[in-house]
Amino acid sequence: MRKDIDYIYSSRKYFIASAGIFIFSFFIGLLISAKNPDAAENLLGMLKETFGSITSLEPFGRMLEIFKNNVRNSFMALIFGLGFGIVPFFFVVVNGIVLGILVEFFLKKQGAIFVIAAILPHGIIELPMVLMSVGIGFRLGHIAYLLMIHQKTTQELLNELKQGVVFYFKIIVPLLLLAAIVESYITPLLITGLSNR
Asked: Quick check: helix, strand or coil at residue 93?
């Protein structure tokens, strides 16, 4: 556990960078939706087309699909960070903008309580884990850059990669599973309760 805490502390600047980029992108998404309401409608249509089949699944199947998607996407953001952090950067920007657009849209349509109930229960776990994955990707990208300019060795990069992957599967994956369980079993109950009020 001490090693994990030390890893989090030593990665703090990468996690802060990940969170900062996400927050900035989130506000861009809010502005896009506020100035162009059609953007939210179009985005919702795309999301329903892509992920609509997941919502029709029973809770356990939905949980597995959400978990699988989150693990795959966050792990790709981590691993492809080796390409100087470019992929995780775009990953976090896109996710921030998308969430900003959806939040602004549903704030107008359903109100703040609905948005909080729909996002907060699982998002309070899921979002930090995704941002940590991106942060590890940034860390690996930085080490890869230092390797390119001969300030790090290949072995040091491999050690960083191993450390990041071990941390990912030890800490991030279990919490993504918890977030998927909450999103599949608890969030729908809250949304249904609010819809029936």
From this structure: helix
Residues 6+ apart with CB under 8 A from 180: 63, 64, 66, 67, 70, 122, 126
Structural domain that includes position 103: 2-195
Give CA separation, 77 vs 36, 49, 52, 132, 137, in Å.
Answer: 29, 23, 24, 10, 6
Residue labelled with tokens 């597995």:
64
Query: Is there a contact between 106 and 118 (Cβ–Cβ < 8 Å)?
Result: yes
Q: Which two tokens stand for residue 144?
A: 């890869």
Total count of domains within the chain:
1
Distance between CA atoms of residues 2 and 102, nearest Å: 38
Instruction: Quick: pLDDT tens for 129-186.
Output: 999 999 999 999 999 999 999 999 999 999 999 999 999 999 999 999 999 999 999 8
58-103 per-position pLDDT tens digit: 989 999 999 999 999 999 999 999 999 999 999 999 999 999 999 9
Nearest C-alpha neighbor of 177 from the set 65, 88, 91: 65
Q: CA-based Rg of the chain, rounded to a whole angstrom?
A: 18
Distances (CA, A) of 9 to 16, 84, 115, 117, 134: 11, 21, 32, 31, 15
- The DSSP 8-state label assigned to residue 153 in this structure reads -
